[in-house]
Amino acid sequence: MSEDDRLEKAIDALSQDTSKMSSAARIRKLLPKIEAAIAAGHSRENIYEAMRKEGLPISSTGFVSALARARRNQGGKAKAPAPSPKPESAPPKESNPNPLTEPKGFEWNTKNHKPENLI
């Protein structure tokens, strides 16, 4: 067996040993199974509790955060929720918008501010 083969075997053994992996790495590794459980109707809270009982040392907020990062970093494999379709006929906009709902900001009124009126 060559040195490269032995090194490859050592790396393979490391990837199988999850006891030394970080919690985030475990979640990344288990992401397909976590997604399958969510698709089957299990809540994130139930999945977290099951993993915690099996020895995953992470808080619930840490689990949610690691899950979100794993989903974001998996290279587009996760399907984003489909955007909701827009209604075919939107109601017409008001021609005279309510001044109370308009965004506040500065508008220069040229009617009252002529160059000859400026000091």
Topology:
Layout: H1 3-16, H2 23-39, H3 44-53, H4 60-73
Helix pairs in contact: 2-4
Proportion of beta-strand residues: under 5%
H and E order: HHHH
What is the helix content? 40-55%
Low-confidence stretches: none
Question: Structural class, please?
Answer: mainly alpha
Shape, principal axes of CA atoms: elongated
Biggest sheet layout: none
- Give the CA-CA distance, first to last residue: 92 Å
Oligomer: single chain
Secondary structure tally, helices: 4
Q: Roughly what is the average pLDDT, rounded to an integer? A: 77
User: What is the rounded Rg?
Assistant: 29 Å
Number of strands: 0
Describe this structure in words.
Helix 2 (23-39) crosses helix 4. This protein has helices at 3-16, 23-39, 44-53, 60-73. The chain is built from 4 helices and no strands. The chain has a domain at 22-73. The protein is mostly helical and 119 residues long. The radius of gyration is 29 Å and the shape is elongated.
Summarize it.
The protein has 119 residues and is mainly α. The chain has four helices and no strands. The longest helix has 17 residues.
List its salient traits:
single chain; 119 residues; mainly alpha; elongated
